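Possible regression after last week's pipeline update?

I re-ran a chain I had predicted before the update to compare outputs. Posting the input and the new output here so someone can diff against the archived version. Not blocking, just want to make sure nothing changed silently.
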Amino acid sequence: MAVSDSVVIEEDVRDSRRGAGRRFAICQAVYELLAKVGYDRMTMDAIATQAKASKATIYRMWVDKPELVADALKWRFGPTPEPRDTGSLRGDLLALMTTACEITGSEAGEVIAGVMTAAAHDGRLSEALGQTLFQGKQQMHATIIDRAVQRGELTPDADAELLHEVMHSMITGRKLWCLGPLDRDFAEHVVDDVLIPVLTCRKP
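New output (post-update):
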């Protein structure tokens, strides 16, 4: 390898590290501002100031504010984890519900709730969240359904999207209307009285 080639590679590595560092700082700034002022009041100027980056740098990495927020949330929470395999549909659903309730009831849950509320009247934000967060959840729910089908607990026509819709609605409604704690009793109620009956209901 020529000396000039070595210098170019070292410069590329340094540029890559600087780029990763800038992305980390910007995503961190976005999450902190979401927690502090919310989506609607968060401006690109505020993000640039918080991250110590220029707006030009931000717009080189992200097309718009919705895409940036979706990416920042994905960065904050990491890739969607593989759902626990407990050996039964009920166990898998209860593990999923328990984790979802814990997150929803935490500070992070407040941030997510605020962004989801904003998405209700911002089509571009809703689209960006759907392309990042929702797709990951969809795959996780599909994995749980597929395992149950393989065990013989569900029929092949069981609907993973229905699992997401019902579970999300139950948790969001309870939190939004302050109907009670997101505790173990609630998780078991949703699993035993709602999710399993819905998923095991045979279609005509």
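Follow-up from reviewer: compared with the archived run. The chain has two domains: 3-63, 79-200. Marking as no regression found.
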